[in-house]
Write a structure and sequence with these properties.
Blueprint lengths: L3 H9 L5 H13 L1 H15 L9 H48 L1 H36 L2 H26 L6
Helix pairs in contact: 1-3, 2-3
């Protein structure tokens, strides 16, 4: 049985049209669930509101402030323990490599120099290969095709920056 519109009308206490009222009354005759909602609503509205005991607000605010302090301390302690355990685990995992690394400074200095030379020569070779490829491709494509490709890349960049802007911006109030 479809309770959705009837539950919305009953639970939200929204004004309904006479036709909706007629539909609701006929539904209440056959649906015990919705009839129980009406009865519960009637009982709740007939109850008298009891005012809180004197000093309730002050006690609640003091208890809330104490709970915030406890939660803040718990978060700080948990973060500290998490970071310390992570550092301990990382030190345990890196200790064999670090021991051999610090045992012989000459080997890691030469390895660093070799890596720098490798990186520099790789970048130079990639730049030269890129220049050759661009010279070859330039002859195959007419200028109009280059304009289309550059426009497509610019459009994709614009869409990318707009999407980042939409995801990152903070909505201002109403």
């Amino acid at each position: 049985m479809n309770h959705q519109p009837f539950e919305n009308w009953l639970l939200n206490n929204i004004p309904i049209t006479p036709e909706q009222k007629r539909d609701l009354d006929s539904h209440l005759l056959v649906c015990s669930h919705c009839a129980a909602l009406v009865e519960t609503d009637r009982v709740l509205h007939s109850m008298k509101m009891v005012s809180p005991a004197n000093g309730f607000t002050a006690r609640f605010q003091v208890r809330l402030a104490a709970q915030k302090v406890v939660n803040r301390r718990r978060k700080i302690l948990g973060s500290f323990l998490f970071i310390m355990m992570g550092l301990a685990l990382m030190a345990w995992m890196v200790s064999p490599i670090l021991a051999t690394f610090l045992a012989s400074p000459a080997s890691w200095i030469t390895a660093l120099a070799e890596w720098g030379v490798f990186l520099l020569t790789t970048l130079q070779a990639s730049a030269q290969a890129g220049v050759v490829i661009l010279d070859v491709i330039q002859g195959f494509l007419p200028p109009f095709a280059w304009m289309i490709m550059i426009s497509a890349v610019a459009g994709i960049g614009l869409l990318w920056s707009v999407s980042i802007w939409r995801f990152v911006r903070v909505p201002q109030g109403v």
